[in-house]
Amino acid sequence: MLFFKAGALSGALIFALSTAAGAQDIGTTATSRIVDVSGQEIGVATYTQGNEGIVMELQVKGLPAGARGMHFHAVGTCDGEEHFKSAKGHIMPTGRPHGFFHPEGPHAGNLPNLIVGEDGTAHVELYTDLVSISGRGGKPALLDEDGSTLIIHANRDDHETQPIGGAGGRIGCGLVEPAAD
Ligand SMILES: [Cu+2]
Q1: What does pLDDT average to over the chain?
Q2: Which sign, positive or negative, has the C-alpha torsion 111, 115, 133, 177?
Q3: Which residues surround ligand 1, an ion (CB under 5 A)?
Q4: 26-178 domain in CATH 1.10.287.80?
């Protein structure tokens, strides 16, 4: 009888552990609806967890042509009235400097520039192994307690200048959300 109880308990424990691990599995997805400062939708992004990083597909429209800095910011909120300031700074739990070209960089939230075409659109697939969706590999999670955002900036990120590579104001914001089942 005692044995039976212990068996049931460990079964429940295994179930709980495997449920927790599921959110970190390869193929786990998250999405963002990207808005401009007026709240109008200008694009969508999907994020898929890989073995060591995330693959993201991004489709936007209505942006100024040229290179636009883009990063994951630390807090999951998109308030256009205050120009997405409450999304706070880039994800960077270890306190390293900004920039792929900085000798001590980068921020975990750093991403390549988004190159917007003359028609104001861009459609790209990107990869970063600096973050995770839910903590796989111990990497900073986009879906952590206070969430995160994908922010598109007004200017090019030079990947070196502190604190944000000269990328300027924030013109687009996407709240990272778990994908609907
Ligand atoms: Cu940024």
Answers
A1: 91
A2: positive
A3: 71, 151
A4: no
